[in-house]
Amino acid sequence: MNVLIVGLGLMGGAYAYKLKDKGYYVYGVDIDNKAIEYAKNNDFIDEGASDPALFIEKSDIIVLAFYPKAIIDFLKKYNNLFRKNHIITDICGVKSSFLSEAVECAKPATYLSHHPMAGREKNGIEYSKKCVFEGANFLIVPDGDVKDSAIDVITRMGLDLGFSKISIIDKEKHDNMIGFTSQLTHAIAVSLVNSDRNDDTKKYIGDSYRDLTRIALINENLWSELFVENKEFLLNHIEHFENELDILKTALKNSDKEKLKELFRSSTKIRKEMEK
Amino acid sequence: MNVLIVGLGLMGGAYAYKLKDKGYYVYGVDIDNKAIEYAKNNDFIDEGASDPALFIEKSDIIVLAFYPKAIIDFLKKYNNLFRKNHIITDICGVKSSFLSEAVECAKPATYLSHHPMAGREKNGIEYSKKCVFEGANFLIVPDGDVKDSAIDVITRMGLDLGFSKISIIDKEKHDNMIGFTSQLTHAIAVSLVNSDRNDDTKKYIGDSYRDLTRIALINENLWSELFVENKEFLLNHIEHFENELDILKTALKNSDKEKLKELFRSSTKIRKEMEK
């Protein structure tokens, strides 16, 4: 299987590295020559260049590992090179805003989106080897008319990357769920850190603060785009969360230990279920 | 040095295990005979019983490893056994609500409180060996007239337990900071999990949700007590946090990417400083 990775950042680099190791023939493309050199020197790719046109026709799978905004432009620019048996996919964290258009622009190729639910707070291909996909969720998001054979190819790629749990989900449900599990958590971590009123906080932190705020180290360009693209779902989740926090705040104001215990029992039960 | 650990739960067990390993002579007390048996069988203690009176007079340090509410009762009950050279301490997560009274009730012994900022979500002595204190903060909270020699003994104990960063802090600042770094984070995690409206969320979670909600597995009795004891500080921090989340929400409503980026840059900068 020949795979073309467009964008050799943290995730694109991890895909290249892991798929080459599994026997895929890997082409790598990036606008940054240093990333290509790094990928070559570390045996992440078989061939690399800055122009995707060199590799598109030779590839079975084309993985777009860059920001959602740039996807449609890419598809329009290289459309004349796409063939019916190409499978084009992306790794973006939101889907509804561009997916229908992407499916159209990719024709005659098959566009089949997916979302690898793993990563690290660091950016850049030099951190790619540290990406751990084992145990993580891999979501396939079909839209329009997608053949089973294309789903099989992307499922196989997810398993070859090391992901453990492959799910198929439609784009609205995807964006709604991701608004909750990923974007809301980032909104919370950012707000928590920004509400810090002290300059010696680090003397007083334990694991809980450290864990909760790790993702406050955030790629501003990527995440401002993801937030705005998924605005409706995310606003809705922020409001549900605020309501729950208000319930806890009221219990606390009233020194209502029984209500607090009820909230703690509920969260413990839900969180435990999640580990099964 | 002879140390008496009263309460062989997760933390008391970890103290016993680590201090015995460092050459302390360790007495262990618990109302649960099973915990004492476990501590004996696993070489956590030199001697154990259910009655603290058997060991108090022979001890240099007495560590109260149980809930804040029970501290004053303990001190009153055993006051007749306390001597001037005893150092009594506790590991509670809040201090203002009981510390002045504890200092009085402990006399003629010295009461010198501390807070080990590490733990695990699990309860019980069988998880004690997995407590990692290395790299963690250890806060000493003097109140009233405390001699330097007592601070030296508790500092030494903190280092022997493996803690890396020992700080001395007054009780109000302690409770204010802990309200932020520990209790607010728990309030957030609980509210986040309780705001979950789906029953298949676990298919869509990545590291961020997992990290943010680990502490939603919460000991309801302990934490309802800690929350209510530290109500004023915690309510204040919840409100600051809500204000920050509102700023983010407004930026999102307006699709104001520049404002979002500014918030993300701020959180990234503050969080990075914390790792130094």
Question: Notable features of this structure?
Answer:
elongated; 6-stranded parallel β-sheet; homodimer; 276 residues; alpha/beta; 6-phosphogluconate dehydrogenase C-terminal fold
Question: How does this model look, in words?
Answer:
- The structure is a homodimer of 276-residue chains.
- With 276 residues, chain A is α/β, with parallel strands linked by helices.
- Chain A folds into 2 domains: 2-169, NAD(P)-binding Rossmann-like Domain (Rossmann fold), CATH 3.40.50.720; 174-274, 6-phosphogluconate dehydrogenase C-terminal like domain (6-phosphogluconate dehydrogenase C-terminal fold, Orthogonal Bundle), CATH 1.10.3660.
- Chain A contains 10 helices and 9 strands.
- The first copy, chain A, has a 6-stranded parallel sheet.
- In chain A, strand 4, helix 3 and strand 5 form a beta-alpha-beta unit.
- In chain A, helix 3 runs parallel beside helix 4 and helix 6 (171-194) crosses helix 9.
- At the A-B interface, helix 6, helix 7, helix 8, helix 9 and helix 10 of A face helix 6, helix 7, helix 8, helix 9 and helix 10 of B.
